[in-house]
């Protein structure tokens, strides 16, 4: 073996070891501080919001809790960090937060140019318009109108694409926060307000006369929402990704927070691997082998989370739609644990 080859091999080994050490940094830091720093919206009903009693709730909040449950066996060991649409990526890049769970759309630019990577899609959504009833029936009627939108988002970019494609002219009023945009629409500074469909349903609860408004059927753009972590943090990426897969697999296996203890006695191999009765999937992730059991017991499966946060038991009352399991005609699908 030549000296050049030896040097190349050693460099590869040192590089690999360095990458592994870096990849473990986030999990080690979280365990050392005893707390997960989770970046959230903080003001979006159904996804992340705090009530007057300072209790956090929402789909993204429950995903934060699921991650904490898998690590600590305690879903309360979280520091929820509200981040704006403008500052959310800087907060992740700087290490202020460990994971971004802020109704954030997965795009190619965000996945390749911002030093972060998405771990999956925990909610399939689409962008739409809210308008006042009796004034607008479809997007065809929106030409030469003022549209409220949140700045520094894909929503604003999608609006420009939609106008160009449909040959429409909009007067765009962009705002720093969704509350500002909603208030402007409610005060009739805008003829329409555009956001994720789920965000529009949440916004309706903040309008003076919600029943006088409606959401158009027109789909402005796809909005695949999901968690993001810092790029290069492979071990942490795997944990956040498999937390999502675990809650999907639990629903598929009909394992719930109510029956998970009984399911520990299941004879179904896939269920036994999911709950850590067999195999060492948890150890491979740097967690305990009962990591998924903890998540299901303390937070629930995907169906439970969806139902209470955005489903029929929530103020949004969304149907499962695309967020149904693949076996029920939806897009939510998880690879097996084995």
List keywords for this structure.
single chain, 338 residues, alpha/beta, six-stranded mixed beta sheet, three-stranded parallel beta sheet, 14 helices, 14 strands, 41% helix, 18% strand, globular, disordered N terminus
Write a short abstract of this structure.
The chain is α/β, with parallel strands linked by helices. It contains 14 helices and 14 strands.
Number of strands: 14
- The helix-strand sequence is HHEEEEHEHEHEEEHEHEHEEEHHHHHH
Low-confidence stretches: 1-23
Main sheet overview: 6 strands, mixed
Spatial shape: globular
The level of helicity is: 40-55%
How far do the termini sit from each other? 39 Å
SS strand fraction? 15-25%
Helical stretch count? 14
> What Rg, in angstroms, do the CA atoms define?
22 Å
Mean pLDDT: 92
Class by alpha and beta content:
alpha/beta
Mind sketching the topology for me?
Layout: H1 3-23, H2 25-33, E1 36-40, E2 43-44, E3 48-50, E4 56-57, H3 59-72, E5 78-82, H4 88-94, E6 99-100, H5 108-113, E7 116-118, E8 123-132, E9 145-150, H6 154-166, E10 170-175, H7 178-186, E11 192-196, H8 197-204, E12 213-215, E13 221-225, E14 228-230, H9 234-252, H10 260-263, H11 269-274, H12 281-285, H13 291-298, H14 302-309
Parallel strand pairs: 1-5, 1-6, 9-10, 9-11
Antiparallel strand pairs: 2-3, 3-4, 7-14, 8-11, 8-12, 8-13
């Amino acid at each position: 073996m030549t000296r050049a080859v030896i040097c190349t091999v050693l460099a590869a080994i040192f590089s690999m070891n360095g990458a592994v050490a870096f990849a473990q940094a986030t999990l080690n830091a979280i365990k050392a501080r005893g707390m997960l720093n989770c970046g959230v919206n903080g003001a979006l009903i159904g996804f992340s919001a705090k009530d007057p009693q300072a209790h956090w709730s929402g789909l993204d909040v429950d995903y934060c809790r699921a991650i904490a449950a898998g690590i600590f066996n305690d879903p309360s060991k979280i520091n929820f960090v509200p981040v704006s649409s403008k500052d959310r990526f800087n907060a992740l890049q700087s290490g202020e937060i460990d994971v971004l769970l802020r109704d954030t759309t997965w795009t190619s630019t965000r996945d390749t140019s911002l030093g972060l990577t998405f771990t999956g899609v925990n909610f399939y959504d689409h962008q739409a318009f809210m308008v006042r009833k009796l004034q607008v029936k479809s997007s065809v009627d929106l030409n030469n109108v003022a549209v409220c939108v949140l700045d520094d988002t894909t929503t604003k970019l999608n609006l420009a694409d939609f106008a160009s494609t449909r040959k429409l002219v909009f007067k765009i009023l962009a705002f720093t926060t969704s509350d500002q945009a909603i208030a402007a629409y409610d005060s009739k500074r805008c003829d329409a307000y555009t956001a994720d469909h789920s965000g529009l349903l949440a916004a309706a609860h903040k309008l003076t006369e919600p029943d006088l408004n409606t959401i158009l059927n027109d789909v402005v753009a796809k909005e695949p929402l999901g968690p993001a972590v810092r790029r290069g943090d492979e071990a942490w990426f795997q944990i956040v990704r498999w937390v999502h897969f675990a809650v999907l697999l639990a629903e598929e296996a009909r394992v719930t927070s109510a029956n998970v203890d009984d399911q520990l006695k299941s004879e179904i191999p896939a269920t036994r691997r999911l709950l850590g009765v067999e195999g060492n999937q948890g150890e491979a992730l740097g967690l305990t082998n009962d990591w998924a059991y903890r998540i299901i017991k303390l937070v629930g499966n995907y169906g439970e989370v969806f139902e209470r946060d955005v489903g029929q038991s929530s103020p949004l009352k969304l149907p499962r739609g695309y967020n149904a399991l693949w076996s029920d005609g939806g897009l939510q699908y998880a690879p097996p644990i084995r």
